[in-house]
Amino acid sequence: MGDRELIKLLKKNPAKGFDRLTAQYGGLLYMLIRGRLSLSRHGSSEIEDLVADTLSDFYLHLKDFRPERCSIKSYLCVIARNKATDALRKEKVAELPLEDAEDMIDVADDIEETDLREQLLREINALGEPDSEIIIRKYYLGLSSKDIAAALDMTPVNVDTRAHRAVKKLKKALTGGAQ
């Protein structure tokens, strides 16, 4: 079913339209979210919840969707990617390993630990994609460069290079430029 027909169905018969939307895009969204999240830390039920949230958000904001700008598929993929990224950011699985990011932590001896974490997360978010994603996966989730590379469609060497540069940027941001 094409985008215009699906939108008409969603407006005319929301239940039937939502079923069709789910049937048409649910599998794709599941695979996309699963690719961004680690199955060892996120169960299939959590991934299914994120898929349902993605589809619900699309339906609830249907009036904002502009079919002339992009397809439903593209729009849903952006929502799903953002939901998966948010899930990673909200996860408080492990502390930043001090041995891997010692340079970042050393500069904050006089800042309380919680303030440092908040400041560090703000600076990580400010790095932008894919650097913030790499830092979160590498230092917060403890994933290997190989696993990160596979999830982000990069090479492990590229992941390591971007991580090294991102850590330097974070150190500079946390120290106010002093090195």
Descriptive report:
This protein is mainly alpha-helical. It has 9 helices and no strands. The chain is elongated, with a radius of gyration of 20 Å.
Could you state the order of secondary-structure elements as H and E? HHHHHHHHH
State the distance separating the first and last CA atoms: 58 Å
Poorly predicted runs: 92-112
Q: DSSP helix count?
A: 9
Count of individual beta strands: 0
**Share in β-strands:** under 5%
Report the biggest beta sheet as strand number plus sense, adding barrel if it closes.
none
Q: Please state the structural category.
A: mainly alpha
Proportion of residues in helical segments: over 70%
Radius of gyration equals: 20 Å
Mean pLDDT: 78
Q: Give the overall shape, derived from the CA principal axes.
A: elongated
In short:
With 179 residues, the protein is an all-alpha fold. The chain is built from 9 helices and no strands. Helix 2 crosses helix 4, helix 6 crosses helix 9 and helix 8 crosses helix 9.
Fill in the keyword field for this structure.
single chain, 179 residues, mainly alpha, 9 helices, 0% strand
Topology:
Layout: H1 3-12, H2 14-36, H3 44-60, H4 72-90, H5 102-106, H6 113-127, H7 131-140, H8 145-152, H9 156-175
